[in-house]
Structures are given as C-alpha cells and as structure tokens.
Amino acid sequence: MSDPATRVQLVPPSSVVLVSGGSRGLGLAIVTDLLEAGVKVAAFARTVTPELAKLADAHPDRSHVGSVDVTDLAAAQAFVRAAEERLGPIDGIVNNAAVGQDSLHVHTAIADIARIIETNLTAPLQLTRLAVRRMLAQGLRGRIVNITSICAQRGFPGLVAYSATKGGMDAATRSLARELGGRVLVNAVAPGFFASEMSAVLGQTQLDQIVRRTPTGHLTEPEEVVPVVRMLLREQTNINGQVIVIDGAASI
Amino acid sequence: MKELSRAQIRDLMGQVLKNQGKVLPDDDAADLREVGFRSLDFSELALRVEDETGEELNFDAPGLRRIATVGDVLDFLVELQRQ
C-alpha cells in the first residue's frame, strides 16, 4: 500500500523571494529576516532607502534591490527578469507594497481612491500574475504571502478605500489558493495596526484605550509579523488560502 | 472659483446645527464638543460649502483632528477653499 505522502508533491520552501515595498517598515523587516535566514531576496520599492541598500551590500550574492513603482508593470517585469538572472527563479512572493489612507470617504479625492486601488489591489494582482506565470512556465512550485490588514475584516473610519483593497486581496488569496491547486500555496497575513502607525494619527489617550482592549496588552510590532511570513514561505504546514490575523486578539 | 466668506460659512454652520435643534454660539472660541458639532457635521458643512462653490473640498483626517473650536472650523474651511 502506498503512503499518501509519497504520492503528494509538497511545495518546497521558497528559496528566492520577491518582496514588494521592501524599503521600510514591515517590508524592510521581512527582507532583513529572510536574508538572515539564508534566503535569496529580490526587493523593490519606489525608493531604495539607505537601510535597504545597506542590507543589499551586506548580502551581495543573495540580494537584488531596485527602485520600482509597483504600479509600473513594465518596470516590475524588468526587475523580475533581472532578479532571476542574478538569483535564480523566483519561487516566493510577498505582496507588501501599499499606500495608506487617512481621510473620510466623502472627502477623499476621486484620483486618490483610484491611486489606492491601483497600488493596493491592481498592482499586486498583476505582480502575482507575472510571477506565477514564470513559476508555472518553469515547472516550479511556490508560495505567495499577501500582506493585508485587520481593516479588511473590521470597520475603521478614514480607511474605506484602503479597507476595500485589503479585503480584495484577502478574497484573491482564497481564490488563488483554489485556482493554483496546491502547486502554489497562497496565504495572507493581516496585522493589526502597528504602534508607529497609530501613534502618528491618535493621541496617547486613544492609544492607551486600544492597548487596554487588546488581550495581549500591546499593539502589534513588525517583528511579530515577520516570523509568520517566514513560516508561510519556508515551513511545511499545509496552510493554504488562509488569512492569519496578528493583532493580539484586539479584533475578536 | 466662487469662494465663500468666513461669515457665509458661519451661516451654513448655523444651519447645520439648527437642523439638529442646536445653536451656534457667537463666540468663535466655543468648544465643538460643548456645541455638539461632530465630525460628520463637519462633513455636512464642507459638502454644503462645496454645493455653493461648485468645487470639491478634499482633505485628510489629520487636519480635522486639530479642529477644536468654532473658529477652527471656519478657519479650516476658508483656508481649504484657497488650496
């Protein structure tokens, strides 16, 4: 009798990971963590920050960084080709690049709504399509991690368009996982609001109130999200098509 | 572009409050919380100004969070029309 495990082809850990929006914040933390874990990383952002450039200098054989606007599909394609020539075929993607919002829907300019949707929803779908086509064409298996947000599942004023795009990516995560039939594992990580983001827009009293309502007693930090992203890219877990919320149970 | 004066915006603000059975104080230093003028009331007022001028007034939320008095509301909208 054959063991089912021997008949199922598992998706190997990603060895070359493409990270969008890798120049600061969570994206930079993800790039740092993956490089430290020995993974090859191709990271781009609109602007290559000194921090990202320093990382690339420290890992010249395992990194490829560049200045690319995620909404510029031609530039993204060129970056992917260059990254693959240097690092080998990409078998992991982290869709992290996004623009935020802090305006009531009725007072958000139409052009800003379009820009948020283009950057946070259209661009990652296009980047995913591009990378998955290359994976499939090369007979590779791979993994995708979409960075979404708790506001895809819970309502927050001032984040209507942003929330819609993150909810769209959560939905795409599930459908892609189905569509790619286990050949590519597709998951999303939905952090709660980071302390740095919240402190920029809320007063100390409001921050204290949110912390009191969070069972773990603190707002999420990028360092707490990074291990989950790494797990989804590297560990054998059979997690697929899921949205993993990381918010200390603030939203339950 | 047509631009409303501070006094005209004050009149519109008074109408927004009057529709809710509230009264706009004469004192620009009056605290919005005491007046009962909430963020959606601000949106309504901004949209009324838009109706009058025919120009959209778009802005981010952080600007709103600094508004605490009747005078702040009027100053904000006067300034916004000029941007």
Question: Would you write up a description of this structure?
Answer:
The complex is a heterodimer of chains A (252) and B (83). In chain A, 47% of the residues lie in helices and 15% in strands. Chain A has helices at residues 4-7, 25-36, 50-58, 73-87, 110-137, 160-179, 195-201, 204-213, 222-234, and strands spanning 16-20, 40-45, 63-67, 92-95, 142-147, 184-191, 243-246. Chain A has a seven-stranded parallel β-sheet, sandwiched between helices. The model of chain A has no long low-confidence stretch (mean pLDDT 93). Chain B is 60% helix and 0% strand. The N and C termini of chain B lie close together (11 Å). The A-B interface holds A 102-104, 106-109, 112, 157-158, 201 and B 39, 43, 46-47, 56-62, 64-65.
Q: Which features does this protein show?
A:
heterodimer, A: 252 residues, alpha/beta, Rossmann fold, 9 helices, 47% helix, 15% strand, B: 83 residues, mainly alpha, Non-ribosomal Peptide Synthetase Peptidyl Carrier Protein, Chain A, 0% strand
Please provide a brief summary of the model.
Chain A has 252 residues and is an alpha/beta fold.
Poorly predicted regions of chain B are none
Oligomeric nature of the chains: heterodimer
- Main interface by residue count: A-B, 11 and 13 residues
Overall, the morphology of chain B is globular
CATH architecture of chain B: Orthogonal Bundle
Q: In whole angstroms, how far apart are the ends of chain A?
A: 45 Å
According to CATH, the homologous superfamily of chain B is: ACP-like
Number of domain units of chain B: 1
Low-confidence stretches of chain A: none
Helix fraction of chain A? 40-55%
Beta fraction of chain B: under 5%
Report how far the terminal alpha carbons of chain B are from each other: 11 Å
By CATH, the superfamily of chain A comes out as: NAD(P)-binding Rossmann-like Domain
Q: What is the CATH-assigned architecture of chain A?
A: 3-Layer(aba) Sandwich
Give average pLDDT of chain B, whole number: 93
Please report the number of helical segments of chain B.
5
Number of helices of chain A: 9
Order of helices and strands of chain A: HEHEHEHEHEHEHHHE
CATH topology of chain B: Non-ribosomal Peptide Synthetase Peptidyl Carrier Protein, Chain A
